[in-house]
Amino acid sequence: MDAYSARPTPAILHDGSAWRRLRKEDVTALTEAATRKAFYRDGLTDEQIAENRRVVEISASCCEAAARNAHQRFSAAFVGETFAGYMIATRHGPDDLELDWLMIAPAFHGSGVAGALMAAGLDWLGADRPVWLNVIAYNQRAIHFYRKFGFEIDPEAKASRLVPNLIMRRPPDGS
User: Fold this and answer.
1) In sequence order, what are the beta bridge partners of 163?
2) GO CC annotations (predicted)?
3) Whole-angstrom distance, CA of residue 86 vs CA of residue 154
């Protein structure tokens, strides 16, 4: 058996089942760890650093709200008893489908957790539907990961955020 096939398959729980297994502090701590590497770089302004901190501060309330919202899906991944990551997908409208949050604990990068959460989100949004997402412009690891799922940078779309973001889109057929 090679190392890839020996990786444990994460358990993915959704909405209330996922939220009941967590504490707000769990989500905040995971988001802090996940954003520390991906959202920061040299040269950020004080305002950009504050915006990154805001993401951490609102993460638990966003997850809790998504778990209760019929237009959102909150999914959490667990490897054994360990909280490994989460995803929020949002149906803003019939043709406005967003992969809104995807946060993975750094210890689980490359473990298949992100792929399992991505698949759960895309399945819920509709595997054959167009989907969009925001990504930190300098987060090359995330951009590369999203491309594996058929997302490409939309050069026409503008994301008005303090921290530079790109919008990536996945076409209706998922390719």
Assistant:
1) none
2) ribosome
3) 25
Please answer whether residues 6 and 26 qualify as being in contact, where contact means their C-beta atoms are separated by less than 8 angstroms: no
Which domains are delineated in the chain? 11-127 (3.40.630.30)
Antiparallel, parallel or unpaired: β 72-79 and 82-93: antiparallel
Quick: pLDDT tens for 82-97: 999 999 999 999 999 9
Helix, coil or strand: residue 18: helix
Mean of the pLDDT values across residues 93-104? 95
pLDDT band at residue 6 using 50, 70 and 90 as cut-offs: low
* CA-closest candidate to residue 38, choices 83, 105, 90, 88: 105
pLDDT band for position 1 (50/70/90)?
Answer: very low
- Distance, in Å, from the CA atom of 5 to the CA atom of 35, rounded to the nearest integer, reads 28
Strand 96-104 relative to strand 82-93, pairing: antiparallel
C-alpha–C-alpha distance, residues 68 and 39, integer Å: 27
pTM, two decimal places: 0.90
Residue 127 and residue 51: Cα distance in Å, rounded?
Answer: 32
Degrees, nearest 5: CA angle 167-170-172 = 140
